[in-house]
Design goal:
GO terms for molecular function: zinc ion binding. Pfam families: PHD, Ubiquitin_At1g33420, WHD_plant_repro. Keywords: Metal-binding, Transcription, Transcription regulation, Zinc, Zinc-finger. This is PHD finger protein MALE STERILITY 1. It is a single chain. With about 675 residues, this protein is α+β, with helices and mostly antiparallel strands. It folds into 5 domains: about 210 residues, no CATH class; about 120 residues, no CATH class; about 100 residues, Aspartate Aminotransferase, domain 1, CATH 3.90.1150; about 100 residues, Phosphatidylinositol 3-kinase Catalytic Subunit, Chain A, domain 1 (Ubiquitin-like (UB roll), Roll), CATH 3.10.20.90; about 60 residues, Zinc/RING finger domain, C3HC4 (zinc finger) (Herpes Virus-1, 2-Layer Sandwich). It is about 30% helix and about 20% strand. It contains 22 helices and 27 strands. It is globular, with a radius of gyration of 30 Å. The N and C termini lie far apart (about 75 Å).
């Protein structure tokens, strides 16, 4: 197995490596990972800063986000041990996504990226400071994570509201992305796209098998999975390979796919007169984007696709140059544009002397006052200059979440200016890049991201979400059902290792071969799923039984007394080479054995609860939605499917339809 260190980090001091945020876990950085997840995670942890003393199950990695100004984020890896006394030994996320048949693992690994100033080490040598996160782009309910993280960290700095990212991976290689907080979720230094890129690289490098997430991402008041489903036929997380995992309320993959296709194919030639008779803005909005689009926009899916693509090309409103004449013309400004520009340049020069450090507003003001005696002018410019471009620098401004003090920092953006000439103001004021001409017939005048999002929200609200019976008639009667199906599909899964497992079957790497191994008990209990195990190429059947026995005992809580006895196919002699069996079975091997606590099913499986689910929607398992049980037969059903909305209180006594009918059919003599 090759884990050679390639030098993909810097060294500040002994035991304190600085890795690149952008390149962390790219091939060869920081090492070449070439093992199973259990092997790779140990190699990764050896590269981190290990907490000593009582906190010996937490490691940290310093990730350099950018160097000018210098800003590092801290990625924490926390090892959680699961035993029979653990409060949350069963993983509800496994249950909801359909992995309830998996056995409970002995260990879980939490990956936490705290918000900036919670886990960041600043260039000025300041320690870790707390920072707020805000609403998340992924929300799954961290039902056990906070207690585990707080216990491991020794403080409350890593609570969920302070996390840019939190994920948990079981020791069998199945994991869950629990939360992502990008710019929309309160992040001040890194976007959700960058966080997902980091997580995707980490999963690929460590050789994870599958990862799930619960998609509750929103853009303002709009569900992101609905507008992306209409515009792209996939979710936003589909950009990283996440696909349909499991639907709630009995939604199947085919129902999900057909619903997206139904909404995407709605013809605008029928939609405009139908909805436009009541909402006159709808025809105007649609005509606006049809006019500027290079290609014909004929369906609702094409319209949303074009608007989402156009949004990507429109510059953010905050990335604009300092317009001194415009500022001087404001009613609140009593100074000339030249004086405003001079004061802004003094502030920039003051920040340059700070050496890319974050400086409190009062310190900036006091230093600039040496050159600008008018404090009113300084206060006005300091208020206007934040997150604007002056010359070749971006003036960053934010509130320190600990001290609540406004701070400023300077970022050199000269590298962002195109080689064709022009200054930073031209670069940031440019409305659309040259590539936008590929899909634009004409350049939109005075169209901003905010205006585009307002138009999209109007269409979202009055076409997709307003389900008035007078409007939803004919072919448009399918809209409410299709929208509900898409919104009821929020459990997504990325299969990281499906292709890799197929490629690595029967292949030898570093004189080792990968086999897919499972256990088969001498009972009627379900067969365990196949786990990848790397074994030496000259392994015998006897060796394999010992390797499998050790692996399953150390990996799964319920198999601590597992004893491997034989193989289902082949292996008549312990001296027989496993290679010959692999060639005959295609790499899948089942080990027959016994286990002392096999009858205690609730200890073994992630999803076992003893509940019987039989809902009118077709659901047979707990999907994480609110349910109610019959007081007679104790069968569980969705409260929504029984006309009890989620915001409505559940009755204290409830009978399902079957039990209610059975009682009605009873002879009166038995009722009294």
């Amino acid at each position: 197995m090759n884990h050679a260190f390639t030098g993909g980090s810097k060294k500040r001091k002994q035991g304190d490596r600085i890795f690149s945020f952008k390149n962390f876990c790219t091939p060869g950085n920081p090492v070449h990972f070439d093992g199973t997840f259990q092997e790779n995670i140990r190699v990764l942890l050896d590269l981190g800063d290990h907490d000593g003393g009582a906190l010996n199950h937490r490691w940290s990695f310093q990730l350099e986000l950018h160097s000018r100004p210098l800003l590092n984020l801290t990625l924490y890896a926390i090892e959680e041990t699961v035993d029979s006394s653990s409060q949350f030994r069963q993983c509800h996320h496994c249950k909801y996504v359909g992995w309830g048949h998996h056995m409970i693992c002995r260990k879980r690994y939490h990956f936490v990226l705290p918000a900036w100033r919670t886990g960041a080490r600043m260039a000025n040598g300041g320690g870790d400071n707390e920072g707020g996160g805000g609403g998340g782009e992924v929300g799954t309910g961290n039902y056990y994570s906070c207690n585990v993280i707080n216990k491991a960290s020794g403080s409350d700095k890593l609570q969920s509201q302070h996390q840019l990212m939190h994920a948990v991976v079981h020791s069998n290689g199945f994991g869950h992305l629990l939360s992502v907080n990008g710019i929309a979720g309160g992040s001040e230094v890194v976007s959700g796209h960058q966080i997902l890129d980091l997580w995707n690289r980490l999963c690929s490098a460590l050789n994870l098998r599958k990862v799930s997430l619960t998609d509750t991402a929103r853009r303002g008041a709009m569900s992101l999975r609905l507008i992306y489903g209409v515009g792209y036929g996939k979710t936003w997380f589909g950009n990283w390979g996440y696909r349909y995992g499991r639907g709630s309320y009995g939604v199947t993959h085919r129902m999900y796919r057909d619903s997206m296709e139904a909404l995407q194919s709605l013809p605008l030639c029928l939609l405009v007169p139908h909805f436009g008779s009541l909402r006159h803005e709808i025809p105007a909005i649609i005509a606006k984007y049809q006019t500027i689009a290079c290609n014909s926009i004929l369906t609702l899916g094409q319209l949303f696709h074009f608007m989402l693509e156009l949004k990507r090309h429109l510059p953010p409103e905050t990335m604009t140059a300092m317009n001194f004449q415009g500022i001087a013309s404001q009613p609140a400004c009593r100074w000339s544009s030249k004086r405003v520009e001079m004061a802004a340049q003094v502030i920039v020069d003051t920040l340059k002397k700070a050496g890319n450090q974050w400086i409190p507003r009062q310190d900036v003001r006091d230093t600039a006052r040496i050159y600008i005696g008018d404090t009113g002018l300084l206060d006005f410019v300091l208020k206007s200059i934040g997150n604007h471009v002056v010359g070749t620098h971006m003036v960053r401004r934010l509130v320190n979440p600990v001290t609540k003090v406004l701070e400023y920092c300077l970022e050199d953006i000269s590298h962002s200016i195109s080689s064709g000439g022009g200054n930073a103001e031209d670069h940031y004021n440019q409305r659309l890049p040259p590539t936008s001409g590929m899909f634009l017939r004409s350049r939109p005048q005075h169209l901003t991201r905010m205006q585009l999002m307002r138009d999209m929200f109007y269409l979202y609200k009055y076409i997709l979400k307003e389900h008035s019976p007078t409007v939803m008639t004919g072919i448009f009667s399918t809209i409410p059902l299709a929208v509900r199906v898409i919104l009821d599909t929020k459990h997504l899964v990325r299969d990281y290792n499906g292709d890799q497992l197929a490629l690595r079957k029967n292949t030898i790497t570093d004189n080792r071969i990968q086999v897919l191994c499972t256990v088969n008990f001498k009972t009627e209990w379900p067969i365990h799923s196949y786990d990848p195990i790397l074994i030496p190429a000259n392994t015998t059947v006897g060796d394999l039984k010992m390797i499998a026995e050790t692996y399953f005992r150390e990996t799964y809580l319920g198999l601590h007394s597992f004893v491997a006895e034989s193989l289902v196919e082949g292996g008549d002699s312990d001296a027989e080479l496993v290679m010959s069996i692999v060639e005959a079975t295609g790499g899948s091997i089942a080990v027959v054995g016994s286990n002392r606590i096999i009858n205690e099913e609730e200890v073994i499986y992630e999803g076992y609860s003893g509940r019987v689910v039989d809902c009118p929607c077709g659901a047979k398992e707990n999907d994480g939605e609110r349910m109610i049980s019959c007081d007679v037969c104790e069968v569980w059903q969705h409260s929504r499917c029984l006309d009890f909305p989620n915001g409505e209180e559940i009755p204290s006594v409830f009978l399902c339809i079957c039990c209610e009918q059975n009682i009605i059919d009873l002879p009166p003599s038995l009722l009294f």
